[in-house]
Amino acid sequence: MTAKQIVESALRIVGVLASGEEGQPAELQDGLAALNGLIGSWNNNSLIIPSMTERTFALSNKQEYTYGIGGDFDAVRPMSIQYAQFKDVTGKRYTCENYGTRQWAELNYPTTMRSPGFYFEQSYPLAKVKFPYLPYLTDVIVFQTLEPLSKISSITQEINLPDGYDRALKLNLAVELAAEYQGVLKPETVQLALLAKKELEVKNTRVESLTFDFTTATGFYNIIQGPMKWDCL
Where are the chain's structural domains? Predict the structure, then answer.
C-alpha cells in the first residue's frame, strides 16, 4: 500500500473525499505531513516497533562512541538497545549488560577485564554508548536494537509493514485529520482506531522469561529481594 492510498482512505473516513475520489495535491501533501507526524509520535512507543534490528560495530581505542547517522556507530539512532554482546575473533560471544543511570554512576570495576556492560545515553541527534573502560580492540559489539519506523519521503512511496499496520495507520490518521478539517468522526470510528493500535501493541509485546538462580537459593525466593535464608523469614 502506498502513502497516497493511506492518506486518501483517511480523507474518505473523515468525509473530505467521496468514494472513488482522488485527493488534490495540497490535500495529499497535508495528509503526508500528518502521516509523518503520526509515525513520529508512534516512534515514542516501543510496542509499535514490529521487530528488533541487529547491528554490529567495530571498536576503537576509546570508551565513548556516538550512535546515529554520521556517528562512530553509523546507523539509524535507535530508540533503545535491548541486548548487547561482545564477539571476539573466534566468534565467541560475551554478555554485555545495559546499565541504568544509577548503575553507571556507581560503577567501580577493575580495568583489566572485558567490559561487563555499557551505558546508552539517549542524547540527540546522536546518542552515545559509553563503556566503563577501554574495550578489547579485537572484539566487535553486537546490538539488538529497536529502531524507529521510517518517515515517508513521498506520497507515492510504498509502505512495507506487517499485517495490521495499514489499517491502524488509516484509522488513526483519520482521527488526526478530523481535527485539522474540523470534522466529526463517529465514536465507533475512534474506537476502531484505538483498537487497531492496541492490537499492534499486543502483537509486539516482548515477554521476558524470569530466571531462578538455584545455586544461591538457600530457602525461599522473594521476587523483589531475591534468595532469602531461613533465618531471614
Answer: 51-146
